[in-house]
Write a structure and sequence with these properties.
The structure is a single chain. This protein has 2 domains: about 180 residues, 3-Layer(aba) Sandwich (Creatine Amidinohydrolase, Chain A, domain 1); about 250 residues, Creatine Amidinohydrolase (Alpha-Beta Complex). Helices cover about 35% and strands about 20% of the residues. The chain contains 12 helices and 20 strands. Helix 1 crosses helix 5, helix 2 packs across helix 3 and helix 10 runs antiparallel to helix 11. The protein starts with a helix and ends in a 6-residue tail after the last helix. Bound molecules: manganese (II) ion. Manganese (II) ion (MN) binds next to loops. It catalyses: Release of any N-terminal amino acid, including proline, that is linked to proline, even from a dipeptide or tripeptide. GO terms for molecular function: aminopeptidase activity. It is an enzyme of class 3 (hydrolase).
Length: about 475
């Protein structure tokens, strides 16, 4: 077959592939090519005149033997491209350059089509498919990414995080294709003594990723709604005798059944003393009458994750002590949410919630002074959330910023206070979108007040 004919066949096949995936049989609510192009333009605008930005896809990683982990794309690479394949690298310049006889500011090197590989692991878009689907200026096969292609001699600054991304070199006894490309960048930077602007790269990414665009807000809204649904269904199903992992299963069933690819982070589902362990993910204990069940679980949807925590009584009613602690955490959360306004420094959210909790713990006689209160509230109240569960974002709140507000009180058995407080662990966490006029609680779909939670627990569930 002639070279032209092969190219023609490849083009036919990739347009078929694109149209097949554009059918109603597949989700259609992904970020648009125009969104990713806009993000690339914004990054380029923030670079130095002779700068180059280099962002790698995530590597395929071995789980054990010949089984890989489920592939999850690198979030920065995804933000700028939308591509969900490994073995690719995006290169951006501020001013047009010529690479491989093509002049422009954006070049992506992707894996080639390979019928044998595709038989095992599914379609690869290839150069023509990526060009058609993502509209990046110039698309090449990744074996063209060589020291000659990537001439950094005229570059004054390299914007990249590849050294922080722990790229390993061997994959199933051979050099990983992505590691080979990272080596190309690394040897070029070392031999030409070019400065690697890692810190400035993170600063630019924070300023961009921290302000969510309308298309991102739509996906965050969806991730939060799915997460809220999971929490509601756990409330309806909870009963003494249920295992922590069964509550987790109900939660994650609703995530997956709603189109979420996977939880945004390992689900934390802890009863009683396990509610006092901040990142408990063992989830094996039985939930008994009188226990509080703390679930810190959220869905990821098309790359964006929510981060939601609810704490509920296993037998349907908060005990008087549990209610006192719960209401104090809720009051602290409301104080934190009240700070979520345009122009307010982000750390004021933590300060407001912390003041309520410290004062309240003194008031309840659990500690004698505010200085002693930190042991029961040992973590921060708020972080950015988006592509990453602990996302990059600006220090001052602005429209489009999304932060969590998540105060908590944890009193493990053996604490230096009245035994009636022991094994109470409460955290309430919501995802708050800052708007021009105030804020919006994206995860308000699952109840926060003790009365509403007790009411919902009374509803029947088909998972009981
Ligand atoms: Mn969180």
């Amino acid at each position: 077959m002639s070279h032209k004919f092969v190219l023609f066949l490849a083009l036919c096949l990739s347009s078929f592939l694109i149209s097949a995936q554009n059918s109603a049989d597949y989700p259609q609510d992904y970020l648009s090519p125009a969104f990713h192009a806009g993000r690339r333009d914004a990054f380029k605008a923030a670079m130095s005149d002779k700068g180059v930005a280099i962002f790698f896809a995530s590597q395929v990683r071995v789980r054990n033997d010949d089984v890989d982990y489920q592939y999850a794309q690198n979030k920065n690479f995804y933000y700028f491209t939308g591509l969900h394949e490994p073995n690719a690298v995006l290169v951006m310049f501020k001013r047009p350059v010529t690479l491989l006889n093509q002049t422009g500011t954006e070049f992506i090197f992707v894996q080639k089509r390979d019928p044998y590989k595709e038989l095992w692991t599914g379609k690869i878009l290839g150069e023509a498919g990526v060009k058609l689907k993502y509209q990046i200026q110039h698309v090449f096969a990744n074996d063209e990414f060589t020291p000659n292609t990537l001439d950094l001699s005229t570059v004054d600054s390299v914007y990249s995080l590849y050294r922080d991304e722990a790229i390993f070199t061997k994959y199933k006894r051979r050099l990983d294709p992505l590691a080979r490309m990272a080596n190309v960048v690394d040897s070029s930077i070392v031999s030409l003594k070019k400065p690697l602007a890692s810190r400035f790269t993170i600063q630019i990414l924070s300023s961009l990723r921290g302000i969510k665009q309308p298309e991102e807000i739509a996906l965050m809204r969806k991730a939060s709604q799915i997460s809220s649904l999971g929490h509601r269904e756990v409330m309806k199903a909870i009963h003494p005798g249920m295992k922590e992992y069964q509550a987790q299963a109900i939660m994650e069933y609703h995530f997956k059944a709603s189109g979420s690819e996977y939880p945004g982070y390992p689900s934390i589902v802890g009863a009683s003393e396990n509610a006092c362990v901040l990142h408990y993910t063992t989830n094996l204990k039985q939930v008994n009458a009188g226990d509080l069940l703390l679930s810190d679980c959220a869905a990821e949807y098309h790359g964006y994750t929510a981060d939601v925590t609810r704490t509920i009584p296993a037998n349907g009613r908060f005990s008087p002590e549990q209610k006192l602690i719960y209401d104090l955490v809720l009051k602290a959360q409301d104080a934190g949410i009240a700070m979520c306004k345009t122009g307010i420094p982000h750390d004021r959210v933590d300060a407001a919630a912390r003041e309520v909790i410290y004062t309240g713990l003194v008031g309840l006689g659990i500690v004698s002074s505010k200085q002693d209160a930190r042991q029961y509230f040992p973590h921060g109240t708020s972080h950015h959330v988006g592509l990453d569960v602990h996302d990059l974002g600006p220090r001052t709140l602005a429209p489009g910023v999304i932060v969590t507000v998540e105060p908590g009180i944890y009193i493990p058995a053996g604490s230096n206070c009245d035994k009636k407080w022991w094994n109470i662990g409460v955290r309430i966490e919501d995802d708050i979108l800052i708007t021009a006029t105030g804020n919006e609680n994206l995860s308000a779909g699952s109840p926060r007040s003790t009365a509403e939670i007790e009411k919902l627990i009374k509803e029947r569930s088909r998972f009981e």
